[in-house]
Backbone:
């Protein structure tokens, strides 16, 4: 049995730890936004957790790059991970650190069944929805002309933006908020395409399975028909012999 490449073994062993780190980052990212009145110590702890998680992501990327058989194609295929590692200080890209983790999980699920892949896509939708809401709230809450002041407003805006409905009752007024809106719209369209393609692939696989089963049954019926015909011929031959 051929042994898996070292990079694939590393990714399999680090999948669960990265997911746990993503949850830790989620809490650290959300607390200062949801609780703007939190004390300085809480904010410092959350910032420290974010940096620790970012360091783990950076280390994971470097290890995977070192273990890759062809490094330049690896960099091209994982450009979003590289952007999230190199640009951790910019506010919009704090969200990309979460997106990069979701992408890691999604890439490792490519060989899984359609049901498992759908689960990862649903998790990506929820993650983008919640952290898009937190990101836009942190940007728009203090804007003089902004109308996204509460977490409920932000969640509603993120939901209508990801589904490209856009009621217009809440909208970002800052450049940063509009950049987040573009990212959410593109992500929503992309995830909808993945879900649609996954459902179509499931139906096609199901129909192909039914076709194979139908062909097998048809062949079995044909074989049975030929056997019955052969038995009739033998029976007719026996009757002719007995008459003589």
Residues:
């Amino acid at each position: 049995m051929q042994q898996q490449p070292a990079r694939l073994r590393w990714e399999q062993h680090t999948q669960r730890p990265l997911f746990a780190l993503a949850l830790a980052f989620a809490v650290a990212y959300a607390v200062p936004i949801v609780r703007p009145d939190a004390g300085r110590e809480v904010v410092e702890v959350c910032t420290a957790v974010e940096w620790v998680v970012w360091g783990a992501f950076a280390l994971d990327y470097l290890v995977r790059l070192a273990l890759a058989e062809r490094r330049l194609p690896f960099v091209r295929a994982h450009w979003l991970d590289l952007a999230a590692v190199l640009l951790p200080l910019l506010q919009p890209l704090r969200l990309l650190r979460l997106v990069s983790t979701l992408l890691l999980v999604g890439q490792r699920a490519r060989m899984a069944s359609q049901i498992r892949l759908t689960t990862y896509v649903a998790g990506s939708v929820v993650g983008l929805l919640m952290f898009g809401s937190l990101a836009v709230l942190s940007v728009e809450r203090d804007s003089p002309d902004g109308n996204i002041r509460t977490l409920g407003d932000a969640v509603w805006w993120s939901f209508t933006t990801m589904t490209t409905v856009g009621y217009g009752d809440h909208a970002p007024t800052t450049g940063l908020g509009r950049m987040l809106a573009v990212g959410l719209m593109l992500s929503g369209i992309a995830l909808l395409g993945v879900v649609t393609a996954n459902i179509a692939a499931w139906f096609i696989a199901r129909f192909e399975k039914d076709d194979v089963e139908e062909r097998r049954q048809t062949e079995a019926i044909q074989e049975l028909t030929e056997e019955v015909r052969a038995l009739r011929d033998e029976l007719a031959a026996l009757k002719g012999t007995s008459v003589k």
